[in-house]
């Protein structure tokens, strides 16, 4: 996809972080942004910023883990804006804590958002795109789905077992989708950023089994790490745009993203040693 002008994009988790900056990067290219988030005020703020850039848009409150709610949302989008040309499955959460302290409720929460949410967005909007494209000549078929994974999809981390697991699943899901949806003219890209300056650590859950003092240290550790890394999320958004333009399959972003990918391919044993490094909480 080279020409973005006049297209429509659905972005989940659009109230902040990668979702907001990607929405604005698309708006600068003339894309109408449909911003979806549990935080409706934040999504509406994103749409206001997009409109200041000259793009249209609308905000919706939706829980990506709720399949029925996502079906209703997708139908509302189609009725109001048509079938979206771009779908950015960005909504995600983190759970910090060792495996044995990560409870069933923690697993249900993170799998619901990070994996099932991506499945719901891809399946429901992908079906709309496929139905639209099948009525068109092959040369006119278009559409792209972007799934946000993480460098954690390559690198195991003892203090982030649920996060790493869901992000690895998103990467494999994206590869399967790409193979299947190509026949309908739909591109699929999986984005794997390393550390970046978003609020994911600030908003992260800590494993329910962690004592309060360790949970507090986990939050401080996560927020400090992202602040010191200081990698602008706008650079991630720019790379997402490029991935759509080039129809790239899997995209690693920044130094740790590339290193994690290389280590996973060249020296998995080194990755396992890194995984055993103690967490400071």
Residue windows where pLDDT falls under 50 for at least 5 positions: none
Strand order of the largest sheet: 3-2-1-4-6-7-9
Domain count: 1
Largest sheet entry:
7 strands, parallel
Helix content: 40-55%
CATH fold descriptor: Rossmann fold
Please report the number of helical segments. 9
Rg over alpha carbons = 18 Å
Order of helices and strands: EHEHEHEEHEHEEHHEHH
N-to-C span: 45 Å
Instruction: Report the mean per-residue pLDDT as an integer.
Output: 95
- How much of the sequence lies in strands comes to 5-15%
| CATH architecture level-2 label | 3-Layer(aba) Sandwich
| Full CATH superfamily name | NAD(P)-binding Rossmann-like Domain
The first-level CATH class name: Alpha Beta
Q: What's the overall geometry?
A: globular
Number of strands: 9
| Computed structural class | alpha/beta
Family: Belongs to the short-chain dehydrogenases/reductases (SDR) family.
Organism: Actinocorallia libanotica
Pfam families: adh_short
InterPro entries: NAD(P)-bd_dom_sf, Sc_DH/Rdtase_CS, SDR_fam
Name some characteristics of this structure.
281 residues; alpha/beta; 9 helices; globular; SDR_fam; Sc_DH/Rdtase_CS; NAD(P)-bd_dom_sf
Topology diagram in text:
Layout: E1 8-12, H1 17-27, E2 32-37, H2 40-52, E3 57-61, H3 67-81, E4 86-89, E5 95-96, H4 104-134, E6 144-148, H5 161-181, E7 187-193, E8 205-206, H6 212-229, H7 233-246, E9 250-253, H8 254-266, H9 268-275
Parallel strand pairs: 1-2, 1-4, 2-3, 4-6, 5-8, 6-7, 7-9
Helix pairs in contact: 1-2, 1-7, 3-4, 4-5, 8-9
